[in-house]
Amino acid sequence: MAILLSSEQEEASYSIMEYLGNKRTTPFTMHGLAGTGKTTVLADISRDVPHAILCTLTGKAASVLRRKTGAMASTIHSAFYELEGVEEKRG
User: In 3-state terms, the chain is what percent helix, strand and coil (to 5)?
Assistant: First the structure.
């Protein structure tokens, strides 16, 4: 099923993809009021970037994000532990 984005959502999606293409090491943050389409943008992007880790402040928000996008999503706190495990495997 295709995701239809508004012009503002398309702009946000473009900004995120441009950020990812520049291989930056700082996190990209997206924020906005409830109902502004953040999850829709992330669902669209997660199709092109399946290895992305989507982080939220709360467990409830992570659960909603996982359900709506089908992508990996966790709290910021949990993501630190996941990344620590990745770093240990690289050793």
Answer: 55, 5, 35
pLDDT (tens digit, 9 = 90+) per residue, 61-76?
A: 899 888 988 888 899 8
Would the pTM of this model clear 0.85, i.e. be above it? no
Q: Could you give the angle at the alpha carbon of 84 between the alpha carbons of 79 and 89, nearest 5°?
A: 130
CATH class of 7-90: alpha beta
Encoding tokens for residue 26? 């700082």
Q: Where in the chain are the domains?
A: 7-90
DSSP for residue 28: P
At 75 the three-state DSSP class reads strand
